Amino acid sequence: MPHGYIITEWTEDQGLVVKLSYPEDLVIDLDDMMRIFYAHITGAGAAGNVLVRLEKARSNVSSYFTGMESDMPIMINLMLELGEDPEMFGDTVLKEINDDLLKYLRQMSTNVSQSYEIVKNIKLYLRNTLILLDRLKNLSKEQRLAQIYTSEKARTILEALQERSLSRRELQGIIEDKLEKIIPNIEYILDPFIKTGLLMQDWVEGDTDITLFLLTDFAIFRSPVSKLIEDAKKNLPNTEVASLYLKEVTQFFKNYKPTFEDNLKIARTLMNPDNYDYITLFRERTYPINKIPKGPGESLDQIGSFLKEMEDDQILKVIKDSKDIHWVFLLTDIVVQTFYPEYLIERIRKDRMEGKINKNVAIKHLEFLEAAYKK
């Protein structure tokens, strides 16, 4: 589990100073802080992310720096266990957290009189963030597939393996060339592929590196919620609301066409553990907004913020009846569908004929695909 966050700022008169730590007893000495800072400013000192291993603090640090040319040179440091890698949380999640924290910090710099209240809000935000990050380590299979879809690095891996099997060394070279960045630890990016059964890793006779074989592919898209449609056809929860719901679903899917941008949006929604809990809940039935089951310590306002975001993304639909009761429906389910990559069989045959892969690799991949097909 992540230890917490330490936020620092570079100032001309004081150098590197700690603006905020959460939890408050989380400390790191100046030498370690400067190690992280130097990792950022080596070269141009531009904005970006680094991963630094701190032996003294027994921690890996995922650090984002706004850059030396920024009006506010801030480092946001996520303190992890030794051996943990930020890849387990996904690029998108950490970027959104950093963006949110920077908004709070800019509010502090422009509203000095409200600093105490803003710091209080930041600490509440960080408390909820650490809970979220801990939950992201225990995703369901469909969430892990969504995690692959939302990560530029993971999508690049998938696209490369949709062409042919590759050694880890070859794959790392392809990713680094395409993304123009160093990938220090490819194992963490591969983790969701292994856990979902998309990939098989194995040694091939005569090779000095492990080869990666794609066994299953997947697609993500919106789908009508069959359970709710069946209920609505039975006039549940009541005739008026059921009729309105069926009209909304019909109208939405009449115009729906999957796009990469929309798929990315719904994949991010599915990855969020709180959103995922509500999607799972609303797959089974609709609820009046004031009777939605609450989690421990969860307020109606918090539930409302989750619902509003998903309503804006046309995942949920709130329908008001003549009695002024607001019913929450799942307008579109999010489906992550795995499928057998039959297209690979012809590609393996063609690559072997053209000498792009050796015989042992081709045979092993076909054997793995045959075993996957039988399952």
Descriptive report:
With 375 residues, this protein is of the alpha+beta class. It folds into 3 domains: 4-135, Beta-Lactamase (2-Layer Sandwich); 141-216 and 340-374, Winged helix-like DNA-binding domain superfamily/Winged helix DNA-binding domain (Arc Repressor Mutant, subunit A, Orthogonal Bundle); 219-336, Winged helix-like DNA-binding domain superfamily/Winged helix DNA-binding domain (Arc Repressor Mutant, subunit A, Orthogonal Bundle), CATH 1.10.10.10. 49% of the residues lie in helices and 20% in strands. The chain has 14 helices and 13 strands. The strands form 4 sheets. Strands 2-1-5-4-3 form a 5-stranded antiparallel β-sheet, with helices on both faces. It has a 3-stranded antiparallel β-sheet with strand order 6-8-7. Helix 4 (141-150) packs across helix 5 (152-161), helix 4 (141-150) runs antiparallel to helix 7 and helix 8 crosses helix 9 (239-255). The protein is flat and about 70 Å long. The model has no long low-confidence stretch (mean pLDDT 91).
